[in-house]
Structure formats: C-alpha cells, structure tokens
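Q: Fold this one first, please.
A: Sequence and structure below.
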Amino acid sequence: MTVAQLALALGLEILTGDVNVDRQVRSGYTSDLLSDVIANVSEDAAWITIQRHVNTLGVAKLKDLSAIIIPNGLQVDPSVIEKAKEERIAMLRGKETAFEISGRLYNALQ
C-alpha cells in the first residue's frame, strides 16, 4: 500500500503535498519516545506520534520511514512541514486518536 492509498483508506490529510506519496508502507509503529522508535521501528513503516517537532524528521530520515502520522487533529508548525518537504518525508494528520489510527493501519495492511 502506498502513502497515498493509506491516506485515502484511513481518511488522513497529507500535510506535505505530493512528497513521497508513491512510497510503499509495509508496517506501522506507534510511539512518542524517539529512542524507542529508533530502536524498534522497521524501514518503510508509517510512524504514528503526537510529537511534532523537527527531531521527528531526523528519526524518520535515519530509519527510512515511509511517513509520519499525527493523530488527534493536532496542528503542526508550518516550519516543520516545510522541513519535511525539503527532506522528502511525508507527513499526514488524522482526526482520530493514535490508538484508533493504529488499529485501522494494522487492518489496512493485512
């Protein structure tokens, strides 16, 4: 499933336009602790987190993630979105909780 297909299936808003929307999403990971993500996430995952600062982009780049998903309709600073575009990291936002998005992501990838 691509990032674009995932966004459509889960009703997620793509904050970064067409950046990496054709990239495959092979798994997901939900955590707000950056060191936990670095230690445990797999490549090509969609990472669900409430963290919305520039350090999340560094983690996504380091671990070669497909996308970052922000739950709860939380706002993301425009400077972070612009940096995500520069770094070619897809950022998406959903209205549901991290728990709900995680479950729907899991089901979509089965």
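Q: Good. Now the second chain.
A: Here it is, same layout.
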Amino acid sequence: MEQSKSNYRAYVCCGHNCGPKGSVRLLHELEAEVERQHIGDYVSVLPTGCQSHCESGPTMVVYPGPVYYQEVDAQRLERIVAEHFVGDTPVEEYFWRGYGALWKRPAWQSRAALPPQAPPRTTATLSQPHAKKGSRKRPTHEEPDDFKW
C-alpha cells in the first residue's frame, strides 16, 4: 500500500456538544483505523475542545488545510482515512458547509475562497475616545493554519 506523502494532523472535536454525540468513541475509532492502515507515522490524531460548528457535529479539522469535516461517523472516518490520509484527496462531500454560498471552493484549494475577513484589529481601533485610560482590550493574534489551545 502506498503511504501518504503528507503529514496530517486530525483534530476531533470533543467539546460540550460533540462529546454527547459520540466524538470520544470516534476519536478512538480514528486512532484504530490509522493503525490498521499503517499510517501512524504520517497521521496524528488529537482531541480538541469546541470547534464552534456545533450544529453539524461531531466535527473534525485536518491540517494541512484547514479542512473541516462535518457530521463525522464511523463510515465517514473510514473513507476520510482511505481517501484523504492515504490518497491525499480530501473528501469534499463531507466538508463543513456552514458558510453556504459564501464558501464556493474548499479552503484547502484556495485561501482566496474563504469569506472576506475584517482587517486585523490594532490597539488604535480598540480604544474608544470616551474609554477610561488602561481599559483597552488586547488585540487577538491568530495562526491561520494551526490550532493554538
């Protein structure tokens, strides 16, 4: 069997909404399937907290990407492992569709396909003219291609 050329990180949501939907069991099933396919050297399987896609959970995000999968179950996991992790082809029909028409192409194909985002906030935009001195909020800095928990 041909091994995957990429190193993947698969994060299974085990948050307060996905957990009761069986995501911990799915995490263990994914770990077992990765071992069955002998791709443990190429795929890391990790639990995460809430991924904020509760309505379509259990969810899983895969890097490099990000590629968000929705309504993950045992059958979908098997196909994701076979096609995405072994075959290097994400399973588009399982992609998270939360943005509807705004998300015309999968994010893994083009960063330009994502909905426009607001420009980064700076301390100048966070302060208000009537705000008390020292009451400014800190700006947030996000990594575009990795979870920071």
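Q: Anything worth noting on the second one?
A: The first helix runs from residue 23 to 36.
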